[in-house]
Amino acid sequence: MKIGILGYGNLGRGVESAVRQNDDMELTAILTRRDPESIKPATDGVKVYSVDDAEKLKDEIDVLVICGGSATDLPKQTPEYAKLFNVIDSFDTHARIPEHFANVDKAAKESGHTALISCGWDPGMFSVMRLYGSAVLPEGEDYTFWGKGVSQGHSDAIRRVKGVKNGKQYTIPVQEALDKVRAGENPTLTTRQKHVRECFVVPEDGADLAQIEKDIKTMPNYFDEYDTTIHFITEEELERDHSGIPHGGFVFRTGVTGLNKENKHVIEYSLKLDSNPEFTSSVILAYARALNRLAKEGQTGCKSVFDIAPAYLSPLSAEELRAHML
Amino acid sequence: MKIGILGYGNLGRGVESAVRQNDDMELTAILTRRDPESIKPATDGVKVYSVDDAEKLKDEIDVLVICGGSATDLPKQTPEYAKLFNVIDSFDTHARIPEHFANVDKAAKESGHTALISCGWDPGMFSVMRLYGSAVLPEGEDYTFWGKGVSQGHSDAIRRVKGVKNGKQYTIPVQEALDKVRAGENPTLTTRQKHVRECFVVPEDGADLAQIEKDIKTMPNYFDEYDTTIHFITEEELERDHSGIPHGGFVFRTGVTGLNKENKHVIEYSLKLDSNPEFTSSVILAYARALNRLAKEGQTGCKSVFDIAPAYLSPLSAEELRAHML
């Protein structure tokens, strides 16, 4: 199947790399809003086009992976390109998913394409785990923890603080909270009890460190509800020790069964990821395979990970899967 | 939806109990090969029928849960009752799944019913996790560990040893192996390195304990490839400390991404279950819901957990799922 990439940032490069790990896929085109000449793909022979030429590529791409940001890019791009291609995105603004779904569904149905939004690990694999957990243990509690990992949004917020030259923020689950959930204690946890935030900050020369610390720790929404630790480091240290984009997290479902609800059960799903964008890309390509199959079956409109049977994700046949994985 | 149960053992009672936790389900009939008078359901008003009366119940049951054993019951029962009902079973002889699938598929297609085999947690949820893992990390390794939990087959094997009055066997993953897998080391593990076996044995009066210990530890297939610990205890201690049926386990997928495969990822799914049959029953009912929906869509034939989109398992609507769980 022929994969196209729209947007060549961290996620786009992750998709390019992941295509090489899937024998049934090839990367046929990268589309960009920048000057195509400015982009040098890591893969020999892959052509780079301006988004203005998208229509010419209609028959060259089975699934277009849209690698824009959720704030402003995807709400416009995914419905727009669903007019020309089967499209998949990683839209992750949870509160706006219903609206985004409706827009993409309308565009895809009108043009006779299929689409899948909000793919990756959260939303994505974590969503699937929340659904399986609640379906198989109807009386129970859900817990999602994120980290240890780099939060792009919180890192951006740090960098906007006066006197800050550069910085990176890690979200870290509180071990005591994990232990309580894992023990089936069904704790009620406040925001502060679930995660801590650790910041590595490069100050500008002569900056007021105490003021920076105060400004970060009291920042509404981002930090004020958390216990935050701040480390001041040099640009060299930031580059050396914090240039990766690791992430991960945990989804728990804890519940009871039995005539007297006497038996407890704990389901735990966790991810430890060296590269958030590369893992997200890998999940996206598995769902792109599913999407291509749905398109060939004649299905149209927008889907989510909830609508995709697991078998559609694998290159193996149904017989092979039953014989070797069931 | 109307649930029927065929076979009122541990699994059948688990299904009965789980029906009470699903508001959209009711238990309408228990079918048994024994004298129906000998069975007293825990639920008021539920009628017990002889299997000979199955045909009369054709229109009273949306999905029949077949709660027999995999060795001899299910290979006969599931195809047989697929002629009359939509059926679901927990067939767990991995090597014979393709043959069982073919038999059930044929019967269900001929009669216009739907069926789902090999449902529970392994095969079942663990199978789904193996499939998701291999699809999203195509270059990687799979690991499945079982326990800590009671193995019925190994407990039966102990009880057949000369001089043994009663006994129970726990399968336990080796912590060092779990740690290595979790650290992304991709170890190659022998049978002995993955699990240990712990036996609690009630000897007959005057039995030769050394001989019992030797007979168990050298038993081919069951124990000879494992490090086995044996504790001799009294019948009272067995009853007091080992009457539960806990189980669980771990499914890992570890893999790499990146242009130079430089980034590692670890996916871990684990279950800690106080009651193996009750959790299995809970999974079965979620898939029974899916099966009933497929039947209403007019689908026929045999399915596996691989063929069921997650959304089919939940009582919530697609809109609710997208708004609250994605």
Topology, element by element:
2 copies of one chain form a homodimer.
Chain A: E1 2-6, H1 10-19, E2 26-32, E3 47-50, E4 63-66, H2 73-81, E5 86-89, H3 97-111, E6 114-116, H4 125-136, E7 140-146, E8 149-150, H5 152-159, E9 164-173, H6 175-182, H7 191-194, E10 195-203, H8 209-217, E11 227-232, H9 235-241, E12 247-257, E13 263-273, H10 276-296, E14 301-303, H11 318-324
Parallel strand pairs in A: 1-2, 1-4, 2-3, 4-5, 5-6, 6-14, 10-11
Antiparallel strand pairs in A: 7-12, 8-9, 9-10, 12-13
Helix pairs in contact in A: 1-10, 2-3
Please tell me about this protein's structure.
The structure is a homodimer of 326-residue chains. With 326 residues, chain A is α/β, with parallel strands linked by helices. Chain A has helices spanning 10-19, 73-81, 97-111, 125-136, 152-159, 175-182, 191-194, 209-217, 235-241, 276-296, 318-324, and strands at 2-6, 26-32, 47-50, 63-66, 86-89, 114-116, 140-146, 149-150, 164-173, 195-203, 227-232, 247-257, 263-273, 301-303. In chain A, the strands form three sheets. In chain A, strands 3-2-1-4-5-6-14 form a seven-stranded parallel sheet, with helices on both faces. Chain A has a four-stranded mixed sheet with strand order 8-9-10-11. In chain A, helix 3 links the parallel strand 5 and strand 6. In chain A, helix 2 (73-81) runs parallel beside helix 3 (97-111). Chain A starts with a strand and ends with a helix. The model of chain A has no long low-confidence stretch (mean pLDDT 97). The interface between A and B is large, with 69 and 69 residues. Strand 13 (263-273) of chain A pairs antiparallel with strand 13 (263-273) of chain B, so a sheet runs across the interface.
